[in-house]
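Section: Multi-chain targets

For targets with more than one molecule, the full set of components is provided together so that the structure can be written out for the assembly as a whole rather than chain by chain. Components appear in the order listed by the source. The example entry contains three components.
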Amino acid sequence: MGTPTTQRTIKLEVFRYRPEEEDEPTFQTYEVPYREDWVVLDALNHIKDTVDGTLSYRWSCRMGVCGSCGMMVNGYPKLTCAAFLRDYYPNAIRVEPLVNFPVERDLVINMDDFMRKLKAVKPWIIRKKEQPLAEGEYRQTPAELAQYKQFSMCINCMLCYSACPVVGREEGFIGPAVLALGQRYNLDSRDQGRAQRQETIFGHEGIWECTFVGECSTVCPKDVDPAGAIQMAKVQGAMEYMKTLLPWGQRS
Amino acid sequence: MKPPLNRNMGSTWWLSRGAYFLIMLRELSAVFIAAYLVFFLICLYKVGQGPEAYGAYLRFLWSPGMILFHLVALAFALLHMVTWFNATPKAVRVWRGEERVPPALMIGPNYAVWAVITAFIIWVVLK
Amino acid sequence: MAEYETLEADILVVGGGGAGLRAAIACAEIDPSLSVAVISKVYPMRSHTVAAEGGTAAVIKSNDSLEDHAYDTVSGSDWLADQDAVWAFVKEAPEELIQMEHWGCPWSREPDGSVAVRPFGGMKTERTWFAADKTGFHMLHALFQTSLKYDNVTRYDEWFVTKLLVEDGRCQGVAALELRTGKLRAILGKAVILCTGGAGRIFPFTTNGSIKTGDGMALAYRAGVALKDMEFVQYHPTGLPGTGILITEAARGEGGIMVNKHGDRYLQHYDLGKPLDVHDPNHPQLRQMELGPRDRLSQAFVKEMEKGNTIEGPYGDFIYLDVRHLGEKKINKKIPFVRELAKNYAGIDPVHETIPVRPVVHYMMGGVHTDIETATSLPGLFAIGECACVSINGANRLGSNSLTELLVFGARGGKNAAEFASENAISDKRALEAQARDEGERIVRTFILKQGGTERISTIRDQMTKAMEAGAGIYRTESSLKETWDTLMRLRERFEKIALDDRSNVYNTDLTTALELDFMLDVAASVAFSALERKESRGSHQRTDYPDRDDAKYLNHTLVYRTEAGPRVEYQDVVITKWPPAERTYGKK
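Its structure, encoded as tokens over all components, is:
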């Protein structure tokens, strides 16, 4: 834990866009105190509180779990609550809204499309027959839990959508986080809804759009490995397709 | 109300990051590997035409341009190979109870098999 | 803000966290013909339920009983919890957690596939279900994702409710600001459920996210509903200095210990039992030492600080939480988030180093006064979760009871609100719309178009939080509370002279920050006032000028009402059904 010091400063070049006043975005430079233990979000809060209240952005938990504060920091998608100034000092830090999303204002992106895709993958347990609550929990061994646990850690911060060039070029692509979420439910021993997610995950806007750049997994702050989830689904999908080609295979 | 601002990716997006550049190289590798296969098929065709045609084609292959081409194609093939070998543990997850088999253990056999096959081919060629 | 549009649903759920989503699902399931609107100032998965770590309590194992869970809760509350509510709570808890399991929550498991439980503070049996140490995160996402399957649930994401609309003596809607457009609209409903969470942000050092500004409490308070037991503010004993990031109680449930600067397990000097060696098979002992209740542990820290046994740091004194003896494997499996947080935000690895921690404001036991059915005194208005006070938490909440509370009372509240909505209709649409129009004009007048303001939001907010910490913290006195109260009254006056930097419509977070501060000033005042009036020490409310519990006078709930002349306090008896008030003992079996 560093000693707080206010002598040193660091520059933040912040993306500004106020749709009511301007048609094109600009960058505004702010000089803020440099502190060893400050993150980019702390600097933004400092600006908002003491310098310029017009700067808009989303944040809440500032402990890397609510997923609100994802932004581009020097061109890389980051949770700003986990991006320390000390990793950039003494250079200026450029802060922009997440790319591959439309911008509402300043650092606030529009996430309608993401929310629509999230619902499309049916991210809930689907059962042919519900077990009554009185009969207790579904049994699930630690080994069965481990099968999908990693893919259940996604905080919906959408950094992976900003890192993925396919998302940027193909509007319909379901995208890394949502495909990983689909796998999370498909791999859950309690779930029987795979067929209902088939179209979204294995359809033409699903996994086959992915060219395995792998950056989604690199930028993921929670180690969800969406690229892994997608490659896994590709292998499964391919195997299933092969089976349908065999003389005794069945076409679904 | 104004619609939200769209920021489209420029045409040079793939130069902005090492990982993006690498993926474009990997995509490009297909061209070289396809070209290599064309030369190889021609080679087989020439074998069928007799020793003279085959010898002429071999001389063509020993030209500096073709050697350079083959080196580049080899580099691309290696890039492709490394990428896919390293992707194995992502695509195929093997579990021992609650623990995942470590990625290195999944990647290793790929390289081992590759080494054995390469050694066999070299042995056949040099024999 | 010139345009007004009225939206409607049968039931309005204000807040999209655990309580709100559970209530919305309950409404949606009870009657698919009912329309449910979930109105939240953030996307639901950003709600602060996401930050809950250690677990959620319910009786599931054969060595446990409902009586024990109820007794632990009542004694933990220092006898201020209503025992009928506690009984309903412990009784409905197991089914609710099984329901969460059926909805896909990835509970940690025993080798045979049954759910695993861990020990928690103040509980005499292991009964805390957990999903590693991200229990709230997994519950919230499971609830949110499950809520997506109900077509009769409509979400209003990023809509900020500024006022409850009350007509003919019933709550029949809300006025809400759509952040994307800056438009204020009326959303009418036959029943309104408040699920807006706590108000930790009225303090400077808190585990709570920036969104926890007591909105729902203030909305109800302004509509004439009482706030109950607001003086009871929980300090969690283990927050990271500086950031206030929570290090879960599960770290102690798994065997972590607390030591002062001399390496002494100081809790043994505060009536919390005697320590066992960390390698003793009986460590950690339930309801003792590190597994004592949060109020007592936080108070012990202050005493240690007074004795000079804490370590001085740039962000105040701290002591150490030591989990090294658990080993890397157990830490990674049971409390991986602790490791992640300590590494990222304190720069230390708990596998090899001790974690610096200090008490941090964590939870409001008090809230909107409701009955056991989650109904408030205003017909049509319900409240659930941290923003409500049923009360099952009394003067001190036990760790892992709050997530369960969301579910049990979320389901109850949803059911009751659905019933209320089926029996009542919107009485006077025009009058309600007129109220929303007035509210829109008030916001434009007092914030957007206001000229000549001189005060900055952050200045007032900082002074408010400092005043709360200084006078209404872990230990309080008449004079400290009076000083806090006076400061809050001065800040309220200064708030009238606030000046916004931002006068635009689209995502004007300067405006929402001001609205939040407006709410927080009310909530902070209710805390200070209730604390001033309760002249005894009980649970988390410790008055050094009245150090003893006074059951003769204060075995009752504080109800504080907002009036033009200032707050007015009433008291309501605690419901005692089974356990008459007794001494609260920890460390003696």
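The mean pLDDT of chain A is 94.
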